[in-house]
Amino acid sequence: MLQVWLLVDLDSDTSVPVFQVCEWHSPEQLKKLLDLELRDRGEPESEILQRCRDAIRYSVKTSHPRFFNQLYAGMEPYSMVASFIAEAVKTNLYTYEVAPVFTLMEDAVLRKMIKVIGWEEGGDGIFNPGGSLSNIYAVNLARYRYCPDFKEVGMFSAPRLVILTSQEVTQACIFTDKLLLNLFQCHYSISKGAALMGIGTKNVYTVPTDERGRMIPSALEEKIKLAKSEGAVPFMVNATAGTTVLGAFDPIDEIADICEKHNLWLHVDACWGGAAIMSKKHKHLLKGIHRVDSVAWNPHKMLMASLQCSAFLVRDKTSLLQRCHSARASYLFQQDKFYDVSYDTGDKSVQCSRKPDAFKFWLMWKALGSRELEQRVDRALAMARSVWANRNYQLSFTPEFANVCFWYLPPSLRNLPESPELWKKLHTVAPVVKQRMMKTGSMMTGYQPLGEKANFFRMVVISPQVSRQDLDFVLDEIHNLGKDL
Amino acid sequence: MLQVWLLVDLDSDTSVPVFQVCEWHSPEQLKKLLDLELRDRGEPESEILQRCRDAIRYSVKTSHPRFFNQLYAGMEPYSMVASFIAEAVKTNLYTYEVAPVFTLMEDAVLRKMIKVIGWEEGGDGIFNPGGSLSNIYAVNLARYRYCPDFKEVGMFSAPRLVILTSQEVTQACIFTDKLLLNLFQCHYSISKGAALMGIGTKNVYTVPTDERGRMIPSALEEKIKLAKSEGAVPFMVNATAGTTVLGAFDPIDEIADICEKHNLWLHVDACWGGAAIMSKKHKHLLKGIHRVDSVAWNPHKMLMASLQCSAFLVRDKTSLLQRCHSARASYLFQQDKFYDVSYDTGDKSVQCSRKPDAFKFWLMWKALGSRELEQRVDRALAMARSVWANRNYQLSFTPEFANVCFWYLPPSLRNLPESPELWKKLHTVAPVVKQRMMKTGSMMTGYQPLGEKANFFRMVVISPQVSRQDLDFVLDEIHNLGKDL
C-alpha cells in the first residue's frame, strides 16, 4: 500500500507532534513565521526547502483521521499519485492532440459514471473545477433547452425565469446580533450561479423542506404554480442528494414526476451524496436518479479523490453541452485536423485551460475496483450512524448520510428546562469550543446555525482511516474543551 | 537546480526515444493500449505502476524544448514542487481556518502583482481556475458596478447591455468548404462569458483592429456611439494584452481615455501578455495598465508556473469583488469566529472548492526573485524575434511578443505569383505538415487560419530551456516534412 502519511513524515524534523491536525496561529503571527514578501533577489535552495516544510507544517492536515471539518477528508493515495503525474505532465484538456491520454480517460470515467447512474442510453459530461461550476452548467443547459436564442441575444426581452430548489440553509439566525436576512438554498452555488447568469438570486424560489431537510414535493408543485401565476417561467428544479449541512436527500422520484408534468429540467446536486450510488445498500437514497436531466457528483468528497475532481453529467444525447457552450475558436478547434475532432472536448467547457481531473478518479477506480469503493461508502455510513449514545450530546438530526449534527451540552446546561434562554446559551457554546479546538490542534470539526436552531457541530465521517477510537476521541475532546462553559 | 526532466526519466525503461515530444496514436489505437475500462475488481500495484508509466508515455511532453504548440510550455521546477505540496496537503481556499498558509500566500502574491501593475492605492483579487473565468469575473464586476440590482432581480427588465472588445480571430475562413459565419473576439472567453451571463454573444461588439491585430481607439469610440444610438448600454471594454494568435497588445492608454470619457469599465485580458510587465524593457507594451479597472494575468503561461495559475486583479478598494459574488453561506462563513474573518476569502469566488494556485507562483517567485523572472521574459522575447530570415518561410506578422506566426512555402509554391489560387494551395500545407509532425513526434507547433489569411503556423517561444538550436530544428523539420507538397 502506498504511504499516505507523507505530510506528517515530512514534518519529522520539527518539534510539532505528529498527530496534531493543525498548529494554530493567528493571521498576524503566521505572516511573521512565513516571511511572505517577494523580493528582487531569489533565495537559495536550502531556504526554499525550509519554506516548503513550513508550508506543510502550518497547513491543516486534512488527511488526519481526526479532521472532520469539511465534506472532504483523507486522501486516496492512488489518486494523489495521479494528481502528481497530472501536475508534472502539465497539460490541458482542450484537444486530443495535446492531451490524448487524459481525453480518453475522462471519456471512460464519464461513461462509467453514467452507467452507474443508470442512464441506459448513455449521455454526456465533463469534469469541472468544483461542484459549483457543475451546478452552474446545469442552470445554463436548462436555460439553453428552454430557449437557445438567449445564447446569442441575451435575456433582455425574456420573461422572468425561475429556478426551484430546496430550502435548507436559511440564515435568519436569531441567536446573534447580526440578523442576516438572506435566505439560502441547498448549496449556495445555485444562488451564485443565478446572480452570475443574469437570472438573479430572487428568482431562485426555495421549496420548503421536511424536518430532515428534504424537499416536500407538494410544496414544489405549489411553488411552480405560484411562479406561473406571477407570469414567470419556471424552467428548472435543483434537487439535492446530500445537503451540505444535514446530508439530506430530496425525493428524486417524486420530484421527477412533477418535472415531467411541467416540462422542467431536473438537475440533481449530488456533489456530496453521489457516492451512495456506488453502494447497493445505500443507492436507494438516490432512487429516481436515472430519470433526471443532469447530475453533479464530486468524487473528491466521499470517494476521497484528490481535490478537485468534480463531474457534471447530462442525460442528453444531442450535444446539448457542446451547443450550449461552444465558441468554435479557430486557433484551437480546427475542423481540418487529421483525426476525429469529436475527441476535442474543450469546447464543451466555458473554461479554456481545463485540468485532467478525471485521471485522479480513473487511476484509483482502476486500482480499487467498484467493490472496494462500495465497501468504503458502506463503512463510512455505518461509522457515522454508530456512535451517538452519550449524555453530553444531543443529535440535532438523525444522520441520513455521513453528516453527524449534534449539540454539545455542557454540564451547566444539561439539566435546564428547554427555553429560548437555554437555546441562546447553547448557541454560544460551539464557537468557544471550536476556538479552543483550533488552538489545541487535536481535531477539527465544523459548526453552524441552521434556521432557528442554535449553533451545532457538524462532523463529517468519510475516510476509511477513521476508527471507532477517533470518533470516541472527538466526543471526549469536545467535552474536555467545553465542560466549564 | 531541481530536475526538470522527471517525465522523460520515468520513461527510461520503455523503448520510447527520450527526445520525442509525443508518441502519436489515433484515439482508437490508444484506447486499446490503455485498457480504459473500470471494473468491479481492482488491479495489483505492479499493474497500476505500469498504467502510470503508460499515462506518461503517451502524453504529450509539454515541457520538451521543442513543444511550441500552446501558450504554455516548460515547467518551472519550484512551481511543480509547490503544486505537489498543494495536492498532498489537499485543501481549499475558502477559509483561513482550513487553509491558513495558502490564504496568506495568495494575499501576498496578489498584493505584489498589484504593485507591479502600478495600482498605487492597492486593490483586490483572486486566483481562478483559468483566465476564462477571470475574464468572466471582469464582465460580472463591470455589470455589478453598472447596476448592483441585477444580482438579485436578474436582467429581465434591463436595457440591452453591450461589451466591446477587439476583433482578432474572425473565422469567416474562405479557404475551406466549411464557411463558419460566427465572428469571434480576442479570446473566446468574452463570448462564452456573455452567453453564460445572459448578455448574449451578439451583444459583444467587436472593434476593428489594425494590421497587427491591435484595437483601433477611434473605431472603439464609433462602436460605443453605435451601441448608444441603438438604445443599448455599453458598460465595459475588454482590451487584450497579448492576443492568442498574434500576441498583439491593444493600446491601453488611449483606450483608457475613451473609457473614462464614457464611464466604462476597462478590463485588460493580459493572461498571455501580463508577463511583459515584469520586464523594464518590455513593459511599455502595457502602457496605461495602472489606469484600468481589472486585469487577468496567468503566470502559468509565460512565467511557466504549473497549470493552473491565473490571477484576477481589481483596482477597486470597496469590496466590489466580495459584494458582487458573496452568498454568505452560514455553514462556512460564520461571523462569530474568533479570528478576523476578512481572511476568509472564499466568498469572493463563484466557486466553493478553490485550489491554492497562488502558492505555485509564490514559491517560484521566492526562489527566483523578480530579477530572474524579468530575465526570462527578456530572453524569450529576444529568442522569438531572432530567427526569421529563411527563404522557406514568410512571416505572417512581425512578432510583437512571443508569438511567431509564419507560412511555410514548399518549393512547389515558392516562385508562383501571388494569387487566390496560391493562397488556397498554401492553406492546405499546414494541416498536412502538422499531421506528419504529430506522427513523427519530433516537435509540436500549432497552426490556424486568421480572417482571410490562409492557415499559418504559430510557434510560441516561452521556456528558457529553448535554445537557438531548437528554433533552427523547427525550421529544418517543417521543411523536411513539407517539401514534397
TrEMBL record, chains A, B:
Residues the record lists as N6-(pyridoxal phosphate)lysine modifications: 301
Record-level GO cellular component terms: cytoplasm
Domain of life: Eukaryota
Record CDD domains: DOPA_deC_like
GO biological process: carboxylic acid metabolic process
Coiled coil: none
Keyword Lyase: yes
KW Lyase (keyword) present: yes
This protein's UniProt keywords: Decarboxylase, Lyase, Pyridoxal phosphate
Named cofactor requirement(s): pyridoxal 5'-phosphate
GO molecular function: carboxy-lyase activity; pyridoxal phosphate binding
Family statement drawn from the similarity comment of this UniProt entry: Belongs to the group II decarboxylase family.
UniProt name for this protein: Glutamate decarboxylase like 1
Organism: Astatotilapia calliptera
Gene of this entry: GADL1
